[in-house]
Amino acid sequence: MSTGQAILERPAAGLVRGAKTLLASPLLLKTAAGIVLLGAWEAVVRAFAPAYVAKPIGIARVFLEVVSDGPFLAAAGATLWAVVKGLLIAITLGLAVGLAMGRLTVVERGLRYYVNSLFATPMIAILPLVTLWFGYNADARLAVIVFAAFFSIAVNTCDGARSVPLDYLEVARSFRARPLSTLLDIVLPSSLPYLIAGMRLAAGRALVGAVVAEFFISIPGLGYYILFNSRTFKHNEAFVAVIALVIVGVSFEAMLNWITRRYLPWARRD
Amino acid sequence: MGPGARWSRHVPVVVSLLAGAAAWEIAAHFTTRAFWAPLSETLESLAESARSGVLTRQAASSFQLYLSGLALAIFAGAPFGLLLARVRWLRVALENYIMMLYATPMVALIPFILSMMGFGFAPKVLVVFLFAVFPILYNTVEGARSIRPELIEVAHAFRSSEWQLWRDVMIPYTLPFAMTGIRQAIARGLVGMVAAEFFLSPSGLGQMIMMGSQNFDTAGLLAAILVIVLLGVGFMDFGRYLEGRFASWRGNDR
Predict the structure, then answer these.
(1) Contacts of residue B233 in chain A, CB cutoff 8 Å?
(2) What is the pTM of this model?
(3) CATH assignment, A63-263
(4) In this complex, do B111 and A233 lie within 8 Å of one another by their Cβ atoms?
């Protein structure tokens, strides 16, 4: 590769040269970087932080014990289930509202300001209001998740429904397609990529919403698991829950990417 | 388009805003005060807190926190992102970790920050910084990946100095992506600000919301939320404007 050559010809320090030779095998380079990062974390915590602070070796030591622990699994299940349920509700409602906004001008003009401003609002802010409405229980968590996820789906579906190519709609009209089949066979499929983009955003927001709600309401879940264990100075155990959250977030992202590649290969947007 | 047409375009918007205001007002009469306060009382409470100086003080405190965290994130994230754009081996080494941290719900780290750093201004700034920095890094790195190697080769072939390479290739190419990151950071930073004010030492607009809910002062609670909604809208518009200004720099080869 010629750029690599050009860079290699310049004088460089030994470490840098070593790293550049590693470019030939990116996986090795990435692994090396991971080890360096974890090592730095371990060293900094050992040198400067109190003993209870989470560090890689400590986390590795408790990891298996925590993930086979009943309360942890129950907490992970509760959070995950709430997020999935909330996302399903938000997708159903958001799809309906977004399609209506995208295709019916009156609905769009009527709801635009509300949907756009609540889309821009950090949903944490309404948490105390939601607890006033629902009480300190799992319903409040579900409501926060739905609130956090709904608007990004509605906004994106609306954008998608408005950007349907006019040619398609004209063809549908010339073949006298019924409004319902135009909606289901043309508008819905062509707004799917936007819906996926909205879901990606919504999933992140839903996860944050769930964790924040659990901090606030103190109901069983990964957020509360983190809060409780960090208060009792079991940072290593608490960090395992953070890892679980990262895995949930990353695997949701991977799932959406897979769906896009598998079923919507025509919709390569970046 | 005649004036009549323009007028009819605005009718639904005006009607919807009026209907929303009326619904807000009327909803309060069907529930207890603990659930919902009428718009008139909310605005009164807002005016009252503006008169007494509470709103200004709390908003200023929130702003200070938000801007400190966001500025740190931009000044740390953008240059580091650019460095990753130029130094290819460093980017290949770190990009997956940056992507992972970008996907991490940073809010989960708040309890750790609380028990390590306690109550104060610094831990709250750290929260805003953590919320805001990874979108900037992630998008800048994405931009760096999109620079075609040919461009750098041509620059080398014409014997550009390092500075010229930065000025004419690296920065123009990555800046639009960095701006997308900054737009996301502007929004995420606001979430971080409210989260920090809720869960670390209470202060600013977050404290106003908390106090409203603890005292069952629903009008005060709604007033504070209304301020946050307006801030969110304002910041998002500003972020979109920033992104839009630099969007035309993006090569149209992608």
Answers:
(1) 116-117, 120-121
(2) 0.87
(3) 1.10.3720.10
(4) no
